[in-house]
From TrEMBL:
It comes from the Bacteria. GO terms for molecular function: endonuclease activity; nucleic acid binding. It comes from Testudinibacter aquarius. Residues 20-152 form the YhcG N-terminal domain. This is DUF1016 domain-containing protein. Keywords: Endonuclease, Hydrolase, Nuclease. Residues 177-325 form the YhcG PDDEXK nuclease domain. InterPro entries: PD-DEXK-like_domain (IPR053148), tRNA_endonuc-like_dom_sf (IPR011856), YhcG_C (IPR009362), YhcG_N (IPR041527).
Amino acid sequence: MSKELISSSDYSEILQQAISQIYTTRARVAKQINGAVNSVYWLLGKLLFDRQLAEGYGSAVVKQLSADLKNEFPDMGLSPRNLWDMKRFYERYYQADEKLRQAVAVLPWGHNLLLLNKVQSLAAIAFYANEVISKGWSRDLLLNAIKMDTFRHTQTQLQTNNFNETLLPISADYANEVFKNSYNLGFLGITEPIKEQELEKRLTEKIKSFVLELGKGFSFIGNQYRLEYNQKEYFVDMLFFHRGLRSLVAIELKIGSFKAEYVGKMNFYLTLMDKLEKSEHENPSIGIILCAEKDRLDVEIALQDINKPIGVSDYQLLLPKDELQTLVLNELNKEI
């Protein structure tokens, strides 16, 4: 039997799906492991809480307990400090909403310690915990988000898209959950202005980090994706497919502020994509214009009479040369 040949685009889709399955499986296993460890820590914290042990008069008991437990379980990290942290872990969440308890239960212990020490609001903790789960944030990236007060910024932002007007209600609700008003591209480590081509190049090189920032369900198809119609060529900066939405997602990158003409160009691209690329079983293609900053009223007017689903998001790119930048650059130095 002769070997069947497939196109490069088909192979790219197979590869991305395979990678996605591996990451999904790894994440599932990690959740199971974290859940088991945190379950033990939760029960130990409850034990200390129920016995009303407090730092001070209870220190000798906890110190002895730590020594005896480490003899029995030397690899579990049962230091006195960690035992007190387990008690704090239980105290913080034992009366909390079940969904929040379920979210923190599957986080790595280091992430939970960061949330215990840096975040007071349970609503903010729920937000960050869900972001870690959905995007696979490392501890450093979680710290980055906390320092940038991402939760507060997210709560104050208004939708800058026309999904409710251009998609079916169930798809519009899902799209509003999937796409954000602002993205953090700090993982690129950029500290000076760059051109759009350089931004695209760096995002392509760090595509795993970019997909994690976008969220679950995205598969990368390609950059400078060619659309040919009426003997003319057009190029989409970055093209993805979202499995949950069953939609192609075109992303156009702009290094400056939002301009109304960007919407017309994206609307044209989406028309071509629906005509040339979209399969019968797929939903309408979605466009995201990613720019350095946007004015909500300008976006609202520009989208008013557009019949294709388009969102406008901004991004945080330039980092101060301080500890925060160091944290992000340390993340970059790890293997992707």
